[in-house]
TrEMBL record:
This is phosphomannomutase. It comes from Thalassolituus hydrocarboniclasticus. It holds the Pfam family PGM_PMM_IV. Gene3D superfamilies: Alpha-D-Glucose-1,6-Bisphosphate, subunit A, domain 3 (3.40.120.10), Alpha-D-phosphohexomutase, C-terminal domain (3.30.310.50). Pathway: Nucleotide-sugar biosynthesis; GDP-alpha-D-mannose biosynthesis; alpha-D-mannose 1-phosphate from D-fructose 6-phosphate: step 2/2.
């Protein structure tokens, strides 16, 4: 019994339609999601741009108001009649000034001898404001809350005919002083909050005013600095500009509709083509099976062509007597039964034909001569040793071999080479160059140049790699290497990797070439073109017979300064003093020369020129952490929110000063390699060490360069139009000691630090920082002890409110050292 099959409901177009619908679904979903996403992102950008623009406009308006008041009061305090009124206590002129200064509720002319005791009537904040003004601090505004209301005080100095500060003009402004700004601000676009913060401590802030409607659902909140201590915060309301979704989605909707139409047209064309090919196939099969006519039509779809071929093969198999043109053939074909599996071809090889594998030939090689390189010269951030003992010409050759291999492994083929003015440096550099060439690395010889020029070469020449042979600030018997690969100074494990490469003889050989390059002129022009001095000054330079002397002398002439030069001739024996400006005894000659020549300031460089120290016009040493304060004061206002790095030896006042200027302070480990790595990690704008290394990313490359730093400091000082002593007097300062060193074995100094860290008597009541060594901070000052990374010594430094505070902290440190290491000679 034959069962009739039920016809299927799916046609050949079924899967095409299904694919099309799925594609449309994904397209529609994707466009919808993207439309919402783009709308949200765009709205966020619009909100941020709107809020930023509003905050910027309001901050500018408020800042303009403050600046106008400041200019008026400055002009009032400089008026000759104000000086006379101060001396004669003339009330008539004070009345005139009150009319001149808009918004003033009270005004006082305070003589220097009458400046104390204001806290009883005005509060401690006003007393401190007047005292700072008398000491030469910059004029500033102070908001004080007293008796439940806000009072605004401006204090400006009154100078006599000798340009000395004889008193203070103290003006009190009432709450209506800012009413014009408040009334001109829109009350419907959100809220404006102005706060005054003490040392950028948000927990100690004072709200100056708050205007505008309360916001239920705040958008992007933006805070802008008005000055170092006033901040304006703008909180947008719900009425901020909103984007419409439809204008954004309209192009996509049009594209979606067009896609729908196009797909339906294509499906219709596909269905029509399938029906035509189906009719051709049916006609062909009918003619072939009934009439034996084998005339295959031309199909437009490959599927139907394949079906026609299969039907032809099937019909010929079922009716073998049917041939071309319907004629019968008398010979019947015999069906062949062909196995599906082909027999495997097996090939055997007789034992006689097998050939034995050739035996491995081992050549006896005599043991190579061992390489002797002292591990101790590979320090934390450079290679350093005593020439002829642990740092020899042979050692430099093998370091060159290892360094050349490392440079090439990192994808470079060239390295720049320079050396300082020490008597041993040319010979060590020659052996280093030979090792580099024997590794296959090409060498660009820059000659005897400062380290800053070598760093400059890694940014300006056709290779980011460089090495300089230098003992830096150490005595003449020392020498070493500072290494840069891909503009990164090698440190710690990377330097030890060179030692281990030498020990395991991973030293490929090659044949590198050498060439000479002169870069000093381009280097000096780059510095000279970057700085702009606002006035002429007379300075004194002490290069300590280091390599930076000749270029420093030439640079000062290029930027238009009159410079007296001490020990600027290069002499690797350092006959006058060690080229270490961090030690006060090495600055004595410079201090005397500044006083003798009545100079504006003095500059000292170390042996390789990557450090700088400064002496003010009175011969006082301005320690590098306070030089960093001056750089921060100049650079951060142009780079708000950027990081500033300083080492553990630096002043405790740096953190608050950096925060007040809108920066982010980070205390880090001492050492030029470590500091530069942290600078790159945080993308910091400026950094400095107490030893005199400065890292300036603003307008420069971020590496430590004494010559460039000196030029930037000179630029800032020339623009302030104040003597150096007055300029630095405005910066916070502790009483402090220079770096103190204690001889200690290289191994013992690290274990001793661990013992001191665990000493509860030493650290009781203190904040402890172990970033690099041990820094203990008390309310009255701080002390630091850390192991030197370059010499077998312990390095110490102390700072505090006064000498008595330092003595107490030193006594605590000395007692701890006596407990744990009585053999040490403690010099305090």
């Amino acid at each position: 019994m034959r069962t009739k099959a039920r016809p299927p409901k799916r046609t050949i177009v079924f899967y095409s339609r299904l694919t099309i619908w799925l594609a449309l679904l994904f397209i529609a979903g994707g466009l919808s999601f993207q439309s919402i996403q783009v709308n949200l992102i765009t709205q966020s950008d619009v909100d941020h741009a709107f809020a930023d623009a509003m905050a910027e406009q309001m901050a500018h308006s408020l800042s303009t108001r403050l600046q106008d008041t400041r200019r008026l009061q400055t002009a009032a305090s400089r008026h000759p009649m104000t000086v006379r009124a101060l001396e004669e206590n003339d009330p008539a002129w004070k009345a005139t000034l009150r009319q001149f200064l808009s918004g003033v509720s009270s005004l006082q002319l305070i003589r220097r001898e009458d400046a104390m005791g204001l806290q009883s009537s005005h509060g401690y904040a006003v007393q401190e404001l007047v005292s700072r003004t008398l000491s030469g601090a910059d004029m500033r505004l102070e908001a004080v809350q007293r008796n439940g209301s806000l009072h605004f005080y401006w204090a400006s100095p009154i100078r006599n005919e000798q340009n000395q500060i004889a008193g203070v003009l103290l003006a009190e402004y009432g709450s209506g002083w800012l009413s014009q700004f408040q009334s001109g601000t829109s009350q419907t676009m959100g809220q404006i909050v102005v706060n005054q913060f003490v040392d950028n401590d948000r927990s100690r802030g004072l709200e100056i005013f708050r205007i505008g409607q309360e916001v239920k659902r705040a958008g992007t909140i933006v805070t802008k600095p008005i000055n170092d201590y006033w901040y304006l915060t703008y909180i947008p309301s719900d009425e901020r500009p909103q984007l419409e979704l439809m204008p954004l989605a309209t192009p996509w909707i049009i594209v979606l509709i067009a896609t729908f139409v196009g797909l339906f047209i294509l499906v219709g064309m596909q269905k029509r083509d399938i029906l035509r090919n189906q009719l051709k196939l049916l006609t062909y099969v009918r003619n072939l099976s009934r009439k034996g006519i084998d005339e295959q039509p031309v199909f437009t779809l490959a599927l139907f062509h394949d079906l026609a071929v299969s039907m032809q093969h099937l019909i010929n198999t079922v009716r073998p007597d049917v041939t071309d043109n319907g004629k019968a053939n008398g010979n019947s074909r015999e069906r062949q039964d062909i196995a599906l599996e082909q027999p495997k071809k097996i090939t055997t090889v007789s034992n006689a034909k097998r050939q034995a594998l050739p035996e491995l030939m081992v050549e006896e090689v005599e043991q190579e001569h061992p390489i002797e390189v002292a591990q101790g010269i590979f320090r934390a951030y450079d290679i350093r040793g005593i020439v002829g003992q642990d740092l020899t010409e042979d050692t430099c050759y093998w370091i060159g071999r290892a360094l050349g291999a490392e440079v090439q492994e990192r994808g470079f083929s060239k390295i720049s080479l320079a050396w300082d003015g020490r008597e041993s440096s040319p010979q060590l550099a020659a052996q280093l160059q030979r090792g580099l060439n024997d590794s296959g690395c090409h060498v660009i010889r820059l000659g005897a140049q400062p380290t800053g020029l070598l760093y400059f070469a890694t940014h300006e020449l056709d290779t980011p790699c460089g090495v300089v042979v230098t003992g830096s600030h150490n005595p003449s018997e020392f020498n070493g290497l500072k290494i840069v690969i891909d503009q990164h100074t090698l440190a710690q494990e990377e330097l030890m990797a060179l030692y281990h490469r030498i020990m395991r003889r991973d030293l490929p050989q090659g044949s590198g070439q050498s060439e000479e390059r002169e870069l000093a002129e381009a280097y000096l022009q780059r510095i000279e073109g970057d700085v702009q001095l606002a006035r002429s000054m007379k300075i004194v330079i002490d290069a300590g017979n280091g390599i930076a002397g000749p270029l420093a002398e030439k640079l000062m002439a290029m930027i238009g300064l009159e410079a007296e030069c001490l020990f600027c001739d290069v002499d690797g024996r350092f006959p006058n003093h060690h080229p270490d400006p961090s030690q006060p005894k090495n600055l004595q000659a410079l201090q005397d020369a500044v006083k003798t020549h009545n100079a504006d300031l003095g500059l000292a460089f170390d042996g390789d020129g990557d450090r700088v120290a400064l002496i003010d016009n009175n011969g006082k040493i301005i320690w590098p952490d306070r030089l960093l304060m001056l750089l921060v004061d100049d650079i951060l206002p142009r780079n708000p929110g950027r990081d500033v790095i300083y080492d553990v030896k630096s002043s405790r006042h740096l953190a608050s000063l950096i925060s007040r200027h809108g920066g982010r302070p980070t205390m880090w480990k001492t050492g030029h390699s470590l500091m530069k790595r942290k600078m790159q990690e945080l993308n910091a704008v400026v950094g400095g060490e107490f030893s005199g290394h400065f890292y300036i990313q603003d307008r420069w490359y971020g590496f430590d360069d004494g010559l460039y730093t000196a030029a930037r400091l000179l630029e800032i000082i020339s623009q302030r139009n104040l003597p150096a002593d007055q300029l630095f007097a405005a910066l916070p300062e502790d009483v402090s000691t220079p770096e103190i060193t204690i001889d200690c074995d290289d191994v013992r100094k690290f274990s001793l630090l661990q013992e001191l860290s665990a000493d509860s008597e030493l650290t009781a009541g203190a904040r402890v920082f172990s970033t690099d060594g041990l820094r203990i901070e008390f309310a009255e000052g701080w002390g630091l002890i850390r192991p030197s990374n370059t010499t077998p010594k312990l390095t110490l430094r102390f700072a505090g409110n006064n000498a008595e505070a330092i003595a107490r902290i030193q006594q605590r440190m000395k007692q701890a050292l006596t407990r744990h290491a009585p053999e040490l000679k403690v010099p305090f």
